[in-house]
Design a protein that fits this description.
The structure is a single chain. By secondary structure, the protein is an alpha/beta fold. It has 12 helices and 12 strands. The strands form 2 sheets. Strands 1, 2, 3, 4, 5, 6 and 12 form a 7-stranded mixed β-sheet that branches. A hairpin with a 5-residue loop joins strand 2 and strand 3. Helix 1 packs across helix 2, helix 2 runs parallel beside helix 3 and helix 7 crosses helix 9. The longest helix has 23 residues.
Length: 380
C-alpha cells in the first residue's frame, strides 16, 4: 500500500464504447479529495484498430491470434498516449496509470456474469515504466454487482454539493446518469439509461459515410418520426428499474435493423429522419429518468461526447424542466471526465481504498477496483 505525500499525480486513460479513440489526462489529486486536470490529450484510433475493435465487439473475429494481437496493439497505443502526455511534464512523479481498456463485451446477466476490457497491462507497464491499474470491473461483479457504471464515485467526489441536488449525465456510446443528493445520508444512484451515441454513430456510418454526426448537423435536417420513436421506447430495458447497465451487446446494429424492420413507416421518411429520431431516443430516455427523480434537481451536468452535440442537448433541454449544462460549469471539461475517473480510481486502488458504490452497481459491498501491474511484472 502506498503512503502518499500530497498532492499526487496519476494518468487516466479511457477509450469508450464508441471506439473512436483514446482520451488521456494527467490528474492532480489533493489531500481533500479534489482533483484538477494538468494536461490532456485525445488521439484517434487508426482505422485498422477501430475496425478490428468493431469486428471483435460484433463477434466477427473468430481467431484467437486476432484478439491477442489487438490486446497487445491497444496497450501500445495507450502507452504512446501516456508517454506523449508525459513528454513535457515537469511536475512531481506520476504514481500510476489508470487504464480502463477497450470494452469488447459487457454481460452482467450471463451465468457467470462478466465484463471484458482488453489491454495488455504488462505491455503497458513496460512501455510507460509506471504501475498500471486495469480490470476495474471484475471485483464488483465478483461481489454480485454489474460492474458498471463506475464513474458515480468520482462524480460524487468532484461534483456533489451540500446545498443542491445535482445530476451528472454521461453521454458516450451508452448514456448513464448519476444522482448526487445534497445531504451525505442519501445514497448516490447511478445507472445506464440506454444508448447514447452508439446508434446515432452506426446510422452515420451506414447511411452518411461518416463516423458521427458532427455538431448534430445531419439530425438538424430531419424530423422526429414519432411512431418510430414510440416503437424504440417499447424496448423492455427502458422500463427496467436500476441498478442496470447495458452495452453494445444489446444496443447495436442488429437491434436497430430489427426495429426498423418492424416499423411500417420506413417508405415515407428520409435517412436523416432516422438519425433525428435516434437522437430523440437518446434525449428522451435520459429525460424520462430525470423526470422520475423525486428530489428537486436544480441542474444536470452533461459530459462525454454527447455534450458536443447541440441538437441532442437542445432536445434534452426541451424534454425536462431540469436546467441542462455541461460539467465545464463545475470546472471540468466534459471531454475529460471519464479519463479523469480512471486516474482517480487508480489512486484509490494503489491505496487499497474502495471506489465502487453498491447503491449503483447492486453489489453486496464496496470494492477496491482494479488490478495493479508494475513494470517488470514486479507485483506486490
Amino acid at each position: 500500500m502506498v503512503k502518499n505525500k500530497y498532492p499526487v499525480y496519476t494518468v487516466g486513460v479511457m477509450s469508450g464504447t464508441s471506439a473512436d479513440g483514446i482520451d488521456g489526462v494527467i490528474l492532480k489529486i489533493d489531500q481533500d479529495g479534489s482533483s484538477t486536470i494538468q494536461a490532456s490529450l485525445n488521439v484517434d484510433y487508426p482505422k485498422k484498430t477501430r475496425d478490428a475493435i468493431r469486428k471483435l465487439v460484433k463477434q466477427k473475429i473468430t481467431h484467437t491470434d486476432q484478439c491477442g494481437n489487438l490486446h497487445i496493439e491497444l496497450a501500445r497505443q495507450y502507452g504512446e498516449v501516456v508517454n506523449k502526455l508525459l513528454e513535457n511534464w515537469r511536475g512531481e512523479n506520476i504514481s500510476a496509470v489508470g487504464c480502463h481498456g477497450q470494452t469488447v463485451h459487457h454481460s452482467p446477466h450471463s451465468d457467470p456474469p462478466f465484463s471484458l476490457q482488453i489491454c495488455d497491462a504488462v505491455e503497458l507497464a513496460q512501455i510507460t515504466n509506471l504501475p498500471v491499474v486495469t480490470d476495474f470491473r471484475s471485483a464488483d461483479m465478483a461481489a454480485g454487482g454489474q460492474g458498471a457504471p463506475l464513474a458515480p464515485a468520482f462524480h460524487q467526489a468532484m461534483f456533489s454539493s451540500k446545498q443542491h441536488h445535482r445530476c451528472v449525465i454521461n453521454i458516450g456510446g451508452i448514456s448513464n446518469i448519476t444522482l448526487l443528493p445534497a445531504d451525505n445520508q442519501s445514497q448516490v444512484i447511478g445507472f445506464d439509461t440506454g444508448p447514447g451515441n452508439t446508434l446515432m454513430d452506426f446510422c452515420c456510418r451506414r447511411y452518411f459515410k461518416c463516423e458521427y454526426d458532427k455538431d448534430g448537423r445531419i439530425a438538424e435536417t430531419g424530423a422526429i418520426q414519432m411512431d418510430l420513436l414510440d416503437l424504440f421506447l417499447k424496448d423492455p430495458y427502458f422500463q427496467q428499474p436500476p441498478p442496470k447497465s447495458t452495452g453494445l451487446e444489446y444496443f447495436n446494429k442488429k437491434w436497430l435493423m430489427w426495429m426498423l424492420g418492424l416499423w411500417e413507416g420506413g417508405d415515407h421518411c428520409s435517412r436523416s429522419d432516422i438519425l433525428t429520431t435516434l437522437t430523440a431516443l437518446t434525449a428522451r430516455t435520459i429525460a424520462d429518468q430525470l423526470n422520475q427523480i423525486k428530489l428537486q434537481i436544480d441542474t444536470a451536468y452533461v459530459c462525454g461526447g454527447g455534450a458536443k452535440n447541440p441538437v441532442l442537448i437542445a432536445m434534452l433541454s426541451q424534454l425536462t424542466p431540469t436546467k441542462i449544462e455541461t460539467t465545464a460549469a463545475l470546472g471540468l471539461d466534459p471531454q475529460w471526465v471519464e479519463a479523469a475517473t480512471f486516474g482517480w480510481i487508480a489512486h484509490h486502488t494503489l491505496n487499497g481504498i474502495t471506489s465502487t458504490l453498491p447503491s449503483v452497481t447492486g453489489a453486496s459491498k464496496a470494492t477496491v477496483a482494479g488490478v495493479i501491474t508494475r513494470p517488470g511484472n514486479n507485483n506486490p
